[in-house]
Structures are given as structure tokens and as C-alpha cells.
Amino acid sequence: MTTEQIFDQVKTMMSDQLDVSAEKISMKTNFTEDLDLDSLDVFEVIDQLEDHFDIEIETDDSLATVGDLVNYVATHLTDSEAE
């Protein structure tokens, strides 16, 4: 799965879950500064992504932007597919 495909899925899921326009979400979108999410909102997004991609996301990693999260998923999805 390419980074672009992962981003498209992340963007769609975030848009649906957070009731945010998909056009407002880019790789540079910051969770707190651009989307005004609190820690619970971020946790819910991460939880949904973990279920969708069947991976575990370490929340102590510095995941401040959508791009950070997409890259994390891409890296760990590749790792889990290799197993």
C-alpha cells in the first residue's frame, strides 16, 4: 500500500469521525493547531486506525501532524506485512 493510499484512507476516516471537511486535511495538518483536537479526539482517531490497519500505534511517538501519522502507519504496515 502506498503512502498516498494510506493518506486517502486516513483522511476519509478522520473526516467521517471528526466531522471535518476532507479538504481541510493534508499531510501538514496539525492535530491541535489546525483541527483543534484534544487528546481524547486524537486517541479515538488512533484507535480507529489501529483497528482498520491492524497495527499498534505507539502514542508516545511524536505524532503531531497527519503526515506523521501516515508515515508511522506506512512504516509499521510494511513491517507487519513482512512478517
Automatic annotation (TrEMBL):
Could you tell me where this protein is found in the cell? Cytoplasm
- The protein's name is Acyl carrier protein
Report the PTM annotation: 4'-phosphopantetheine is transferred from CoA to a specific serine of apo-ACP by AcpS. This modification is essential for activity because fatty acids are bound in thioester linkage to the sulfhydryl of the prosthetic group.
Residue positions, PTM O-(pantetheine 4'-phosphoryl)serine: 39
Q: What does this protein do?
A: Carrier of the growing fatty acid chain in fatty acid biosynthesis.
Q: Where is the Carrier domain?
A: 4-81
Q: Which NCBIfam families match?
A: PRK00982.1-4
Q: Which InterPro entries match?
A: ACP (IPR003231), ACP-like_sf (IPR036736), PP-bd_ACP (IPR009081)
Its pathway, per UniProt, is: Lipid metabolism; fatty acid biosynthesis
Q: Which family does it belong to?
A: Belongs to the acyl carrier protein (ACP) family.
Q: Keywords, A to Z?
A: Cytoplasm, Fatty acid biosynthesis, Fatty acid metabolism, Lipid biosynthesis, Lipid metabolism, Phosphopantetheine, Phosphoprotein
